[in-house]
Amino acid sequence: MSDFDVIVIGGGPVGENAAARTAAGGLKTALVEAERVGGECSYWACMPSKALLRPGHALAAARRVPGVPVGERLDPAAVLKRRNGFTSDWDDSGQVGWAEGAGLEVVRGRGRLVGERQVEVDGRVLTASRAVVVCTGSVPRIPKLPGLADVSYWTSREATSAQEVPTSLVVLGGGVVGVEMAQAWARLGSAVTLVVSGARPLPKFEDFAGDLVLDGLREDGVTVRTGVKATGVSTVDGDIALALSDGTSVAGAHLLVATGRQPATFDLGVEGFGFTAGDALPVDDTGRVDGVDWLYAAGDVTGRALLTHQGKYAARAVGTAIVTGATDPEPWTAPVATADHTAVPQVVFTDPEVASVGWTEAQAREAGLDIRVVDLDIAVAGSSLHADGYRGKARMIVDERRRTLVGVTFAGPDTAELVHAATIAIVGEVTVDRLWHAVPAYPTISEVWLRLLEAYGL
Ligand SMILES: Cc1cc2nc3c(=O)[nH]c(=O)nc-3n(C[C@H](O)[C@H](O)[C@H](O)COP(=O)(O)OP(=O)(O)OC[C@H]3O[C@@H](n4cnc5c(N)ncnc54)[C@H](O)[C@@H]3O)c2cc1C
Ligand SMILES: NC(=O)c1ccc[n+]([C@@H]2O[C@H](COP(=O)([O-])OP(=O)(O)OC[C@H]3O[C@@H](n4cnc5c(N)ncnc54)[C@H](O)[C@@H]3O)[C@@H](O)[C@H]2O)c1
Prior knowledge:
By secondary structure, this protein is of the alpha/beta class. It has three domains: 4-140 and 262-339, 3-Layer(bba) Sandwich (FAD/NAD(P)-binding domain); 153-259, FAD/NAD(P)-binding domain (3-Layer(bba) Sandwich), CATH 3.50.50.60; 352-456, FAD/NAD-linked reductase, C-terminal dimerisation domain (Enolase-like, domain 1). It is built from 14 helices and 21 strands. Residues 143, 172-178, 180, 197, 203, 229-230, 258-261, 306-307, 346-349 line the site of nicotinamide-adenine-dinucleotide. Residues 344-449 form the Pyridine nucleotide-disulphide oxidoreductase dimerisation domain. It holds the Pfam family Pyr_redox_dim.
């Protein structure tokens, strides 16, 4: 007799969703969590980072509209207090209560795969009759830099949970974590230097988006060093100094290493099933791990899309696949995460925001599609009403054969909410000819859709 039908290892947003889905399907489900139920996202990633960014954006937005009385600067104590509220002061009892209310048995401890359908948690072996689901997330990827191990550097955990504004901060890495945290702390009063190896930050996005974010960071007083690599780390007069490939160096009271993340498959027993610790678990679109019919995985640990919403989508597919026993379902059905391949939305919550879905121009060309790229400044009545001097850009990529969209990027203040329309257009495979009839309300920033279609030639 097994202890459970389903054991989920990792109680982040993805594990919570997979477990809630199997429990709702009538399966006895355990949720094994080593630290806090709610995972990285709730305590050291999405929630606290956005709570740190939002007040600075509100202040900047108010400054762009004459007649709104605004103060000179943010009140850091109030901002940090509000951020602490969003993490429940790093107390997960609320989320444990939610999990128990959803019918889950929360098991505290580190889970490890020790045999077929067997998970050891702190010396106790639990068995699952149906499936084990790995949702252990990811951990920071730390580069091998001489001297780095000898200093007390920050990762995203310290950058999102610090209780004081650092006097100065060096940020290594111009990905999403790097730009968001550079701007958040700069707007809270820190002297921030961002070190980026390419010509601009956000290399995974369209170039114009990285350029606009670069301008935004510089306007906030962030020193951005582009085109340089870090070569070593040392301590100078109590500060941490980063030596750079052009022979110069930068220093700050703290160093944030934001150079990417890697799947949390260490000390998990994956080697016993033919996988390598530190590598992603390879899964099919139902989340089933390659070659192991009772083992599933979802979220960051699969390396598919390191985003909370996409991980939760995969978790809903996994949960449905386990409950229904679907093994080879059709694409675009509930047990399949089909959208992972073509329609992943993401928002970079800087000011200006970057909101994108689907493929970049480079990705679409690499896929061999016959595409047409439509570029526009966001300059409609809605944007000029929204803010004086509004600056933004939009790109729409059309698959010329099917006359459907395969990628859209918006960059500009408050463009985040525009992206879901683009996601629906891509997932729904709506042709540009039909999209023409989706009339944007006047005067909203969404009117840029009309201008994009006109520029396409409709
Ligand atoms: C600074 C930052 C900001 C971000 N902002 C956003 C954002 O705004 N929007 C967005 O979509 N994404 C954002 N992300 C990405 C997002 O945080 C991740 O995609 C998301 O947390 C992945 O969820 P997950 O459940 O797969 O993993 P996690 O949230 O990492 O949760 C995994 C859980 O598994 C537990 N665990 C690990 N190993 C074991 C084990 N052996 N036994 C038991 N438990 C274990 C961990 O303790 C953890 O609680 C951000 C990331 C960072 C770093
Ligand atoms: N708003 C959001 O949705 C949000 C926010 C934060 C993080 N995330 C997700 O979390 C994941 C991790 O974010 P991240 O910013 O850590 O990773 P990332 O992969 O987005 O960026 C890491 C950056 O570091 C650079 N880099 C790598 N090694 C380097 C080195 N030795 N020196 C200098 N630069 C180096 C890379 O070129 C890259 O630009 C991302 O996939 C992202 O999607 C999402």
